[in-house]
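pls ignore typos typing on phone
L-homoserine + seq
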Amino acid sequence: MSNPKIRIAIAGLGTVGQGLIEIVQRNGELLTARTGHDFEIVAINARSKTKNREVDISSYEWMDDPIAMAKRDDIDVVVELIGGEDGVAKAFVEAALESGKHVVTANKALLAHYGNELATLAESKGKSLRYEAAVAGGIPIIKSLGEGFAGNAIKRISGIMNGTTNYMLTRMEGEKISYDAVFDAANQLGYLEADPSLDVGGIDAAHKLAILTALGFGQKLDFDNVNIEGIENVSLVDIERAAELGFRIKLVCSAEATPDGVYQSVAPALVPLDSPLGQCMGVLNMVVVEGDAIGKCVLQGPGAGRGATASAVIGDICDIARNLQMPVFGAAHDTLLTPKSDAIAKASPFYVRLQLDDQVGVLAQVAQAFAAESISIDELRQLDHEGDETPLILVTHATEPVKLHRALAAINKLDAVLSNPIAFRIEEN
Ligand code: HSE
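k done
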């Protein structure tokens, strides 16, 4: 007796699409044993039919029109690997859901911007919209949050969710090279997104964080309220001073429950060298979930790449084949909480770097600006310098970010301040 089939259409045959086809071809028997279904790729679509590919696609029906493919009635699951926050990817997913298909996507930008609408559509049609590959590549964080941690009230989700910037910061530290040099290296390796500001500007990580926040905290997706700062202002001197203080600089994603709602941020932060985040190096990603029952749980793995991302996609298709269906963000979309937009970051210590003209009295003026905001200074170091420019490193005691920013704005107005102050939050564990 033959097995029931799970009939798949794939739009987008880049690295991940080819990785997915490879897994279906290589692990067909294993997939059948685990799901009771034969996996059949029925139709495929990409921008170019003739491009050289590392997998044999000759046995699959080629379709030039992805929307027509999404609407076919001999397909069970469509896989969206086109990318981009709207355009064809959005039209493709909408057409598939409208015509009653399950959808698997790796598209973090699409979900971050249109996740609420798409979840409503999927749930109104009784279909799955699955997106394990959209966040932290191969790490099964969507499954973990949606299923394994479903009984926990989540207190905080933090992590490193952009492999490219983690690679850049790791190399800056390890090889003592500048931001510009490591940016060029990442570019040559093809790590950077087509628009590099998505990576270095923290936007890609923010897309991922917003998705996890919705799922973890049971609220509607709220990308617009992620506070985003990229790594462009992290310099080698900061990385070296952080190391002297026992820290490493990472682009940290954080969604934390506060009395005023969930505070979401992506920003460079100093993390202890021996903490889980401090030990996550190179292109690896890490997600740390803190729940009221489990406590702290750390997941680490490859956040991008052919095999890792395709592994997440095929896991979603397996769940669909097994008929495991759950609401897109863990609870029916119309029951999700409305996010509060006035949450503020909790107080923390800060690392501050100032570039000062070496004038008499300048230190007193800086100290006065901090004192005016009741900010207590824990440590102060004046670095070796030649000439009249004095790099000054300060570590504050825990302070509310709003006070720190007021103090830095006042300092920035001083005649002796030569460039914009740099400030990064310090994570204490
Ligand atoms: N640009 C992303 C990263 C790719 O570097 O993590 C994976 O989402």
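The longest helix spans residues 108-125. The two ends are 57 Å apart (CA to CA). more later
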